[in-house]
Amino acid sequence: MSDSHIGRATVLAEALPYIQKYSGKTIVVKYGGNAMVSQELREAVISDVVLLHLVGIHVVVVHGGGPEINDMLTKVGKKSKFVDGLRYTDGETMDIVQQVLCGKVNKDLVATMGRKGARALGLCGMDGGLFQAVQKDERYGLVGEITGVEPAPVTVALENGYIPVVSTVAQGTDENPAYNINADTAAAKLAVALKAEKLILLTDVRGLLRDPKDESTLLQEVELYSVPGLVQDGVITGGMIPKVDCCVEAVRSGVGSTVILDGRIPHSILIELLSDEGIGTMLK
Known about the structure:
- This protein has 10 helices and 14 strands.
- By secondary structure, the protein is α/β, with parallel strands linked by helices.
- The strands form 3 sheets. Strands 5-8-2-1-11-13-14-12 form an 8-stranded mixed β-sheet, sandwiched between helices.
- α4 crosses α5 and α7 packs parallel to α9.
């Protein structure tokens, strides 16, 4: 027997206790960034999700689609505009956001999972009032602040053996019918509503680094009480602050733990969940 066969068997044996740990539990994965643009990484992420599903773990995928929205805006001759890092969403942009997120991106993911042998069900935040929102601030346009989550559409899908794939458009509960919402926030709120065991935020960085220029300084575990100090020390800065805030809120609201994970690494989800290694930053 070759060393490669023994190595593969060792990997599978190592995964067993983790499969037992998470079997029947709910894992919410926020999917976006480079892992969504690169075809190789896209295939790896979807393969990871399907494998977890097939071994009995309840996986929920919450996705964005910023690059695809940018492409469509370019095609119609409309320039993307951002305010404080958020996409300014006027009426025309909102129409495109709905078409791209709830349509093409969502259904492409569902179809890809189907080709890999899993049953997936595409949902958007307006289905069954899954995400309810009001306008965040007029200067952002039709960007919403989530006010409520109705997890029933997702739980029904899980109970019937589907992988729910959720796009981040919310039902407006004020004068506007729909809102563009932040995918990290949506994933965190849904994880809380589902009483998830774990929330994974796929990003384009290794995780939290003590020294941003040195990936060997990755903080593998962060206790919630230490977060304010890390912000004060400049370890958590810029766009990482709202991500960490989502993680902190999720854990304080009952989610077992959250992980900021590098989606640029092929099969990062499997490495993080089903091995002794752990390659992201866990907040607990």
